[in-house]
Write a structure and sequence with these properties.
The protein has one domain. The radius of gyration is 24 Å and the shape is rod-shaped. By secondary structure, the protein is mostly helical. The chain contains two helices and no strands. 0% of the residues are buried.
Length: 54
């Protein structure tokens, strides 16, 4: 009884797949936030140069 439950637990891949998807989502969100922060300052500088023309 215990050995069959342990065997099923060791062969269950559902939890590890969910963790892998969570890690991928965290990595992608970190990349997106970093990109927005870098491009945001450059975009703000570009808009400011246009505003300074008027």
């Amino acid at each position: 009884m215990i050995t069959s439950s342990l065997r099923r637990f060791l062969h269950n891949q559902g939890g590890s797949t969910a963790i892998e998807y969570a890690l991928i989502a965290a990595l992608l969100s970190t990349i997106i936030v970093g990109t927005v922060l870098v491009l945001g300052t450059k975009l703000e500088a570009a808009y400011q140069s246009v505003v300074d023309l008027f």
